[in-house]
Amino acid sequence: MFDFEGYGDSDPVTALAPGVALTNAKAIVAGLSLSEQEFPPRSGTTVVFDDGGSISIDFTTPVVGVGGWFTYAAPLTFTAFDAALDVIGTELSLYSSNLALSGETGSVPNELLGIASSTDIFRVTITGDPAGGSFVLDDLTVEFRQGNGVPEPPAMALMAAAVLALGRSRVRARRRRPMR
Questions:
Q1: In this structure, how many other beta carbons lie within 10 angstroms of the beta carbon of residue 156?
Q2: For residue 109, which of 55, 50, 44, 40 has the smallest C-alpha distance?
Q3: For site-directed labelling of 59, which of 42, 66, 81, 126 has its Cα 20 to 30 A away?
Q4: pTM of the model
Q5: Rounded to an integer, what distance in angstroms lies between the CA atom of residue 176 and that of residue 138?
Q6: pLDDT tens-digit profile of 98-116?
Q7: Quick one: DSSP state of residue 66?
Q8: What is the 3 state secondary structure string of 107-121?
Q9: Domains delineated in the chain
Q10: What is the H or E stretch that residue 172 is in?
């Protein structure tokens, strides 16, 4: 898990570990640049935000699951890609905003979004407002594929969470369809 606590306020976050590269991610710290009343961190005091556009996370070694905790002012789309950059999964946020004070009714900050896949993941993108500045990410979890091709046990838990979230998204989509 990456909690971003080692970064200072306004530090660009470009590499979390060997083979894990981010774009458009900048650290912000509660009490400094982060408005923790609206965007409370899930843990610690430091999160990353979408600085100038969607955050992309690229992996040189394939992963089987990626997820994190998001507080957002615009609807989020979390998308996973394979080595050919074909989409292998997408998850949508439950609300249009889950800010702590002014979010949509019924929402809570720090919503878990993620994707687990039997197909190797080489990139994820998280998109809110195309101009950026619309969400924060805390406690990013990445599950690498083990040498035998079987995900390690924590990845199984992430996959289960992704399946539950997919079901949640489908139920919400049915509720939004107009009655005929």
A1: 15
A2: 40
A3: 42
A4: 0.82
A5: 29
A6: 999 999 999 999 999 999 9
A7: E
A8: CCCCEEEEEEEEEEE
A9: 15-176 (2.60.120)
A10: helix 153-176
